[in-house]
UniProtKB/TrEMBL annotation:
<dbReference type="GO" id="GO:0034213">
    <property type="term" value="P:quinolinate catabolic process"/>
</dbReference>
<keyword id="KW-0808">Transferase</keyword>
<dbReference type="GO" id="GO:0005737">
    <property type="term" value="C:cytoplasm"/>
</dbReference>
<protein>
    <recommendedName>
        <fullName>Putative pyrophosphorylase ModD</fullName>
    </recommendedName>
</protein>
<dbReference type="InterPro" id="IPR006242">
    <property type="entry name" value="ModD"/>
</dbReference>
<dbReference type="Pfam" id="PF02749">
    <property type="entry name" value="QRPTase_N"/>
</dbReference>
<dbReference type="InterPro" id="IPR027277">
    <property type="entry name" value="NadC/ModD"/>
</dbReference>
<dbReference type="GO" id="GO:0004514">
    <property type="term" value="F:nicotinate-nucleotide diphosphorylase (carboxylating) activity"/>
</dbReference>
<dbReference type="InterPro" id="IPR036068">
    <property type="entry name" value="Nicotinate_pribotase-like_C"/>
</dbReference>
<dbReference type="InterPro" id="IPR013785">
    <property type="entry name" value="Aldolase_TIM"/>
</dbReference>
<feature type="domain" description="Quinolinate phosphoribosyl transferase C-terminal">
    <location>
        <begin position="106"/>
        <end position="293"/>
    </location>
</feature>
<keyword id="KW-0328">Glycosyltransferase</keyword>
<dbReference type="InterPro" id="IPR022412">
    <property type="entry name" value="Quinolinate_PRibosylTrfase_N"/>
</dbReference>
<dbReference type="GO" id="GO:0009435">
    <property type="term" value="P:NAD+ biosynthetic process"/>
</dbReference>
<feature type="domain" description="Quinolinate phosphoribosyl transferase N-terminal">
    <location>
        <begin position="21"/>
        <end position="104"/>
    </location>
</feature>
<dbReference type="InterPro" id="IPR002638">
    <property type="entry name" value="Quinolinate_PRibosylTrfase_C"/>
</dbReference>
<comment type="similarity">
    <text>Belongs to the NadC/ModD family.</text>
</comment>
Length: 298
């Protein structure tokens, strides 16, 4: 489970329950005891369970039965039951439902894309990008993991990924390549990736191969100074397949990630090119799952 702060949990609650459930109070039923059962109207992959448990607890409910995040559910299946007063159950109702239907949607689409990719290339992973809705990143990452994929980058402080915008301040791509022997040691235990077009990807693969040759011939006295991987953006499936073959022939160790336009409709075709990973924002565009609750008096 991804770490989710109490501050975020409190903020999610406050959006829907700033004070109390006015309707239960007006009707005079606030203290009556009951149960609330969550169920789905469509097949899905469940996500957000641990987060909802914390929300329910803060709102005065007790979870007595639940499925696990990552479980596959059939239409009509119940997946969580909680107990509490009518006021507490109504406070939790929509807050928890919103977490379930949005997070489960992301997990469901992620699982479909992961399964499609693995069916043709078991070594290709789905990598969810950091182009997510601000403020709820931890919930979305949790949903992506429940769906069987991985985060591409959790933030700028995590990985070294060189973009064209960085190269602008270095004097261009050629200057960057010239400085690689000095840049490489600074990465220490970090991986060094570069987003490039096909031509530059081939140039970096050749640089890697030459650097490896020099390193071997010097018995390691001249350290290897190449890049760990390339990220290629917005290539067609045919263009990518041809590029992957060329890159593998030059530098078999190079990690290849494809990005740009990868979605649930073409993910299998892109995975079939032989890449190591597919960076995509598509899971975040999933339509919320149709879920609801049943309440009963105790």
């Amino acid at each position: 489970m991804v770490t989710v702060s109490d501050e975020l949990i409190d903020r999610i609650i406050a959006e829907d329950v700033p004070y109390f459930d006015l309707t239960s109070h007006v009707l005079g039923v606030a203290e009556q005891q009951g149960t609330m059962e969550y169920f789905t109207r469509e097949a899905c992959v469940l996500a957000g369970v641990e987060i909802v448990e914390r929300i329910a607890c803060k709102l005065g409910c007790r979870v007595v039965d639940r499925a696990a995040s990552g479980d596959s559910l059939e239409a009509g299946q119940s997946f969580m039951t909680m107990e509490g007063s009518a006021a507490a159950l109504h406070r939790a109702w929509k807050v928890c439902l919103n977490v379930f239907d949005h997070c489960s949607a992301v997990a469901t689409k992620t699982r479909a894309m992961t399964d499609a990719a693995h069916a043709v290339n078991p070594a290709c992973e789905i990598l969810a990008t950091r182009k997510s809705m601000p403020g709820v990143k931890s919930l979305l990452i949790d949903a992506v993991l429940a769906g069987g994929a991985f985060p591409h980058r959790l933030g700028l402080s995590e990985t070294v990924l060189v973009f064209d915008h960085h190269l602008t301040f270095m004097g261009g791509f050629e200057k960057f390549v010239e400085q690689l022997p000095a840049i490489r040691p600074r990465c220490a235990e970090k991986k060094l990736f570069v987003e490039v077009d096909a031509q530059r990807a081939l140039q970096l693969a050749r640089f890697n191969a030459e650097s490896m040759r020099v390193c071997a011939e010097s018995d390691g006295r001249v350290p290897w100074a190449g890049v760990d991987g390339v990220q290629v953006d917005k290539l067609s499936v045919d263009e990518l397949a041809d590029l992957v073959k060329q890159l593998r022939a030059i530098d078999p160790r190079l990690t290849i990630v494809a990005a740009g336009g990868v979605n649930d409709k073409n993910v299998a075709a892109y995975a079939g090119t032989g890449v190591d990973g597919l960076a995509t924002t598509a899971p975040y565009t999933a339509k919320p799952i149709d879920m609801s609750v049943r309440m009963r008096m105790r």
